Amino acid sequence: MRSFFYLIKRSFSKSFNIFLEEGSLTFVNLFTIILVSLTLWSAVYIFYFSESLKTYLQNRLDFSIYFKEGTSREEIEKIQKILYNFPGVKEVNLVTQEMAFEKLKKESKTNPIIERALTELKSNPLVDYLVVKAENSEIYPKISDYLLKSPYSGKIDYLSYFENRKIIERAISFTNNLKIIVLGILIVVLLFSFFITFNTLYISFYSLKEEIEILQLLGASNSFIRLPFIFYSLLFSVIGYIFSLGIVVLFLEKTKNFWSMVIPNFSPYYFTLENFFNLNFLILGFIILINTLSSFFILQKYFKL
After folding, report:
1. What is the Cα Rg of the chain in Å?
2. How far apart are CA 224 and CA 207, in angstroms?
């Protein structure tokens, strides 16, 4: 047991010496880890942004059912009850012509011409209509097909869903394409970073080749020689990640109130707080795993350890 603790203590001490002695190479390794960490954090936030934007747009997607003149309110309320029981429908709100007229008057206060025109009207030109909200965008075509094939199709003037759908679908398509682009950039950056880290680790280890050979001649075990190098890769991975995490936290703190103005349901600050442990565990764990495996591979292939 004492020999085990001695081995760990000696490995940590030696890894720290390598960290200091390999100054320029350690700096390159730290910079690479910071770059990889920031890239991974950026990818997380871009994917989160894409999902938030998609959810926001889908929540805004609804359609109004406008009825022809002469359609009684009883008939409209009957259609409302039918749609309310339609699978996947969250809510169906009836907007009466009086409510619609009051809403138009409030919205036209910023436009004096429209406001003056409304005051001169002798009767309300608007009609009753229904506003339908569904659980997801796939429900709307089904509702539309049902209405157009139902006995009530003759009562319907038009459906606004078809006007909104193209805009929403373009936006959702954009978010999906954005994910693909980000994934491609992420893969390229990770491969480039892995290449740099692998080569700097090899150079760092090779600079100590003479010391490794002496230890082998003295009969030192592979684990005795190997552990300091493994701990070295672990050390610069953790330190580099802490620096990158500081940059991320500072950025989130400075932009905390900005993102909700872009999309109301997009808040990377609170998203990070809620998932802080899981995100750090995954990102740091991934970085440590890659560097540790690289160290094992280099030591085994090129130094026979």
Report:
1. 32
2. 18
Q: Inter-axis angle of helices 222-254 and 209-217, to 10 degrees?
A: 140
Query: Could you tell me if 160 and 260 are in contact, meaning their C-beta atoms sit under 8 angstroms apart?
Result: no
Q: How far apart are CA 165 and CA 132, in angstroms?
A: 14
Q: What is the number of residues in the chain?
A: 305
Is the pTM above the cut of 0.70?
Answer: yes
At the second CATH level, the architecture of 62-168 is 2-Layer Sandwich (3.30)
pLDDT digit string, tens, across residues 34-52: 988 998 898 899 889 888 8
How would you classify residue 41: left for phi > 0, otherwise alpha for psi between -120 and 50, otherwise beta? alpha
CA distance linking residue 94 with residue 74, whole number of Å: 11
Q: Identify each DSSP E strand in 144-234 by its residue range.
A: 156-159
Find out whether 269 and 252 touch, Cβ atoms under 8 Å.
yes
- Every domain of the chain and the residues it spans: 2-57+170-303, 62-168
Whether the per-residue pLDDT at 134 is higher than 90: the answer is no
DSSP, collapsed to helix, strand or coil, labels residue 130 as: strand
Beta-carbon contacts of residue 212 (< 8 Å; ≥ 6 apart): 205, 225, 303, 305
